Amino acid sequence: MMISKNNNVVGFQVLLFLILCLGVVNSAKFRYPSVFNFGDSNSDTGGQATLMGMQFPPAPKGNFKVSGRWSNGGLILDFLMKKMWLPALNPYLYSLGLPNFSKGCNFAAAGSTILKPTDINVTPLNLETQVSQFLLFKARALQLVSKDKKLKKYLPNEDAFKKGLYMIDIGQNDLSLAFKSNKTLDQVLASIPNIIGLFETAITKLYENGARNFWIHNTGPLGCLAVNVAKFESDPSKLDKHGCVISYNEAATTFNLQLRNLCDKFQLQYPNATVTHVDIFAIKLNLITNYSKLGFREPIKSCCGSGGKLNVEVSCGLAKMLNNGSIMMGLPCSNMDDYVSWDGIHYTDAANNYVASQILSGKYFNCYQGVGVVEANVLGGVSGLFDMRLLGEDSLGTRSENSRNSSSATWKNIVSAYEYLKEGLHWNVGDVHKLVWYDEWTLFVDSLTTSIPHEIKQFICGLRYPSSTELESRWEWYLAAIKKYSAREDYRWLLEKTLYWNANSNWNWMWNTNIPKKFKFTMWLGLYDTLSTETFRFKRYLASSNMCKRCNKVQETMEHCLRDRERSKAIWHMLDPGILDSTAGTALEEWFWKALANNEASFGAGLWWVWRHRCNDIQY
Description:
40% of the residues lie in helices and 10% in strands. It is an alpha/beta fold. A hairpin with a 5-residue loop joins β8 (319-321) and β9.
């Protein structure tokens, strides 16, 4: 008998709250000074309309009442920009109205592909061309700003290009056009490696020209678009249980898998880049399959358009002469928020808003940051939070014993959070009141299943489960009175732990001292090994060596810098010789604790002046 890890739904908030309480301060924030976007109609804010001289009516929904968008309101890009407190992106081709590009620029255009344009493309602006436009834009912008500082108000500076976010959402049209040209599924699948290769060429060129923060969307469920479903309405065998075209979604899934592999490869090749891969396919498919629960009434049918079961015989905004001489107009529906699809290809304002909210929830993206991958997946819970590539072949449990002295402060806090998490988390079976057992495999393992011990099998076989379907096996936070996790209960538990924590494991002994805040903060940084010593800088590739620049004899560890170096000892002896006499050779944390207990005023001041003296000696 086996139990799958995928069935164990663990509260993500538990670990997240504990990590934050234990001092992890470098959590990712969705904040960038600028955004440079590349893609197709899913993120086109007017590029294609400007290129072709098309006149779009104002969008009737939301705060995006501007022409040029392929929706009745905002795009996913618009909602993400809003989250970053940045203005909506102007298209690169805008020339009138003094467009402001200081916060970025949008190079996306409807109909764009990764492949080079062919005779069936509606635009020449493929990804390669968009990247070329960006390079010209960057060179020209920096040139103009260097000549006239007043233009900083309208154009991005060097910092905006360096620290900006490079968003890419493209690939849907490559697959759509392949099917449109009557290629078989096998032929479409065979073409995908070439498409991914051109995608890699494009992002590599961006990287070579200074881009470091990449935000890459995979393609959505192509087979669930109304224009594609309508082609196979007469043959239900081609559709899945949700009404989506099986072959089209298979192509999208294959494309997405190879795109994900490219993100892996790219990060390994360029470790100082940050690549965020967003699973748009999973978000949109969840929206379509659970539309009613999410407040929608029509998952596939087009809102804007006319004719047929799905309103796609006459496209949105167009007209068709019927045999009887009458004209059928592709008009929008009145209840737009009830629809997922706006025009049979693109999504409504309401649907785009939902997709953006799911992206920002963190459940559907993978963030590659050199040392490994941090994942948050809706099925994985805590077990999916840290990808095994971060750990190699070791589990978090096996790493914890030898991580405290060799790893970063962030890693130490993650290990500590895991240890505390085990105290309150238990797996209960059946009526949720019968405790089975707890083992490390349940959270962090290399395999998905584990064998159940013989005595546990006997116990489970002897259980008589209630017939009610509402009762289920699940994790419980037994430290809470109601056995359910909540931030309030977690905070109460953490406060209560001060009654029996070892003093060395509780920061209250430091924060409750009567010394200036700057002294406390310096101690806190020292305890977390984040003061900028040469060892600290060397680990982060900011220094060529970890040797002490003042004595050139040993590594400049925190202990050497603050206590063991001769000039540091001289300062301590002038203030209070007892600070060193009773704690020589002890660990830094124990030294801090004992020294503060003996003479907190002298120790706080001494630590501040030792560090200040060190910084004055070294000029970077």
